[in-house]
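Task card 7
Instruction: Convert sequence to structure tokens.
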Amino acid sequence: MTITRRQFLVYGGLGVLGAAAAVTVPLSTVDAKSASRLSDRDMPRPYRTAFAQAPVLRPESTGIDPVDGAPVHHYTVTQMASSAAILPRLMTPILAYNGIFPGPTISLERGTKAVLRVRNQLPARHPIDGHVLSTSTHLHGSASLPQFDGYASDVTYQGFKKYYRYDNAQPARTLWYHDHGVHRTSLNVYAGLAAQYHVHDPAERQLLPQGEFDVALTVNDAMFAANGALAYDDHDHSGLWGDVMLVNGRPWPVMQVQKRVYRFRILNASISRSLRPALSTGDPMTVVATDGGLMPVARQVASYRHGGAERYEVLIDFRKYATGQRVELRNLSNRNNVDYDHTNKIMAFDVIDAPVDSSDPTWNTIPTTLASSDVMALTASQSRKTRRFRLKHSDSTNVFTIGSDSWQDVVASGFRKVVANPALDATEIWEFENSSGGWFHPMHIHLVDFQVLSRNGRAPFAYELGPKDTVYVGESETVRLLMRFGPHRGKYMMHCHNLPHEDHDMMVQFSVGLADDAVDANDPMTAAPAVWDDGS
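Output:
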């Protein structure tokens, strides 16, 4: 991977009237000890901050869907400018759901529907590059109807609101909601528009720790200007790699843990950086769930490769450690990250001698057999079509594409052009070949969960033998995925989740169950538009 750009953008501040103009600051070298421009006294140090989780969002009201009798919860989140206490002395301007990063967690039971009202009360323009702050909210991991899926060009402008409806009919899983605004996703997510969303079911509740022992970790990296504002450098659209690792918005926090088994829902919310988590003790972690929920069989790993947007649920057993012992969650990194002095650390756990509730059967249990799923029960022989996609990068235009296609082509076609048109309930194999040079690509396919069949003709990694919606396609790798298309008809996106790649312009769409001349009742641009926010 060639890095050529030597400047970065910083927040000029978020004023009452909106965004200040961005300014440029020279970036020295990509192998510097740090990327931030903070003074020594303002630069955070690892393991000086207490761990905290995002609050759980309570529904404003509950009811019953008159069509099918299912329970419905109604929620509101407001996208707004705010500030966060990330650094020791300085405040950091952010754009966030309900003014906090990460945004509030939504947690509900499988089969409980959700209506999420998203209000855009952001400044008129983004403080980094001045783009108009329109947004599109994607519930990543949800089989949503197209008009509620966060289609990139289905944007909500300042002063408007949109109602998103989610059936939550899929098995228990860790999802997350984040901005997906067309060609501006990386800047909007980096500024703070990201949060977790949890769906529970009886199988997951019986097998895995719950409550305070079910811990959400939203991990991302950032860099800072001298005044504490976020800085941004996408290295000529190739990616952003910060020097400060954040967990739930706090730099390298420390969590106190009891001598028992904990479950961690680890979301890599970095816009570019991949992770390789490992424990400082060398002890294994147990992967029990992937993007789409429980794996058929738990897998122990010393470390694993964790791309942007992927979610892995892991169990860590703290029973063997001494009172007062510190166990670090470290980051061994991967090829083509840009690493700094402390990006090899994520967070730490301090073991305490608090009473353990031994009536909870998950306190000392590491399950082996978990739960199957429809996608993991599929076999390659059921596939009726194999489609092949090459992931490419043009040196002349500095644009990333899927084959020769990009989102600009979709826009130019009036949102008609598709790269694939599987029938409803069709089972297919999709193959991704990374021919882009020195980049890795976390590829996300909306609507479906898939099974990873192979990597370069060999078996997939043990830790990804569960239902997935995002797959790490490493340098010169070819992966084969098996999936069934449903439950909805309509148009959905497929893109790289290195978000500067998505924005420039590695995103396309496919249609499910639509004939070329069919009327699309779920057209994502027209079926459920945003409306003026009158406060009601």
